[in-house]
Amino acid sequence: MSASRIAGAPRRSRGALGPMLRKPAFTVGGSIVAFLVFVALFGPLLVHADPFSMNIQQRLQAPSIHHWFGTDEFGRDVFTRVVYGSRITLRIGFISVAIGFLGGGLIGLLAGYLGGWVDLALMAFIDLLFAFPAILLALAIIAVMGPGLTNTMIAVGVATAPSFARVIRGSTLEIRERVYVEAARALGAPHWRLLARHIGANIVSPVLVLVTLQFPAALLSAAALGFIGLGAQPPQPEWGAMLVSARNYLQRAPWMVNAPGFAIMLTVLGFNLIGNALRDVMDPTQRGA
Amino acid sequence: MEVLIPGDPVEMMTLGRSVDVQTKTALRHELGLDQPVPIRYLHYLEGLTRFDLGTSVRTRQPVTREIAARYPNTLKLAAGSLVVAIVFGVLTGVLSATYKDTIVDFAVSVLATLALSMPSFWLGLLLIFQFGVRWPILPVMGAGSLASLVLPSLTLGLILAAAISRMVRSSLLDVLRLDYVRTAHAKGLNAARVLWRHGVVNALIPVITVTGLQMGFLLGGAFVVEVVFAYPGIGQLAVKSIQYRDFPVVQGVTLIVAFTTVAVNVLVDVLYALANPQIRFS
Description:
heterodimer; A: MetI-like fold; B: MetI-like fold
């Protein structure tokens, strides 16, 4: 314990990667996600088929050397479509979590920093949104804005915003009262500096944990919306939407169910594992079972 | 709360139907859509006091009737899933806590992690394929018999079971470390009795709260699972209504779901107080 550190000021969480790498969950999750990112970036360059090209003579073919995962009811190659689908999935995850983080984060930061009636009003609104399960909130938004991929990202993003608002408000409230923030304020630091340098920098770890845990949740919601026909619309090779036709051909072409569903599970699993490992390392008080 | 609920009912009228202007105007008038929004909103609120949620645009039936016909089905599905979730969740949780750090514990944890990453609709499709196509012993569509409830309940319940299993495990491990458990062992009670009577019963108290929080997941999940199994609940109704721009029904379902969530939360609080003698309402 060195005397030069201001009492109560948290140590910079440097070197969090070391303990992370010792966690098998992180290694496995990280490998899955790395593989996924690779597929999304380079996959479409490596597969030759067109995810949209139809070929009625080739419809409902079982998996073979030509069609690794078989073909669908229009004779499209399922493997190619799954590969292209990875791009859609990752885009959905990034954009919707970004929307939730920015929107919810701003609300949470304002509520926590300003306090008083602003806090009361904003949090009453957030509590109201919490009365709805996330997927229903997303459904309600889709109901107003109409189905589609873009609206799905917005709807899922808005549905994740309440969690961000709550976590960021809680952390902000806690850190705002710390001695070093008071010291900075006493020294005349402007609001933006307090928010960015002293509060923002110190709520990074809970936010990072939340981001990695909301990411897979957002993917599941978006895929579910695609599946019930309100998210990505055909012919887009979105994994959830691909399962709609798989359902109708369950008897004649059961292979259509496997690949897209497995792809969703693998992706969600990868991010979940990373999120759990991050939570264990960064927040020892909430250590999971 | 009602501020959120009215969406944009005008939109549904503009949906590309080839209807002449006169019919449209007549229809608008009939549905009260030619009146300004605040007036319509007041009408809606006034209707609420009489349990009147308006009329479905698609079926021309009162929204309350549409919902009342399906709401019990959704409750049945939720109840069935909850039973599945608790039975599987508690059993596997106790199992992995008892055999902590063994292959059993590891297997349960891997299964739980996989289940939590699984999209419910995919699990549903796999179950349909297994028990409806390959080995046709269970109905895969609709509602009515108890058997038709099995697959949808399993789909939703197994995923929730994974979450419950983890909580039971960690909560039970905490409880088993406590003094009274050691005392019970020292008294010479047999191990199974100590585990269940002193351990599990007390470990379940925090689990009740967290399970209560998962009721939202259950309701939301029911929406998707109902579509998978063509199960006539309010979720399927809502999805169909959104596709047909049947806003009065969407509003009605949203209202009823919000109401249910709040009611369940209150119920969970009461249950928690009943289960935990340390809490008394003053």
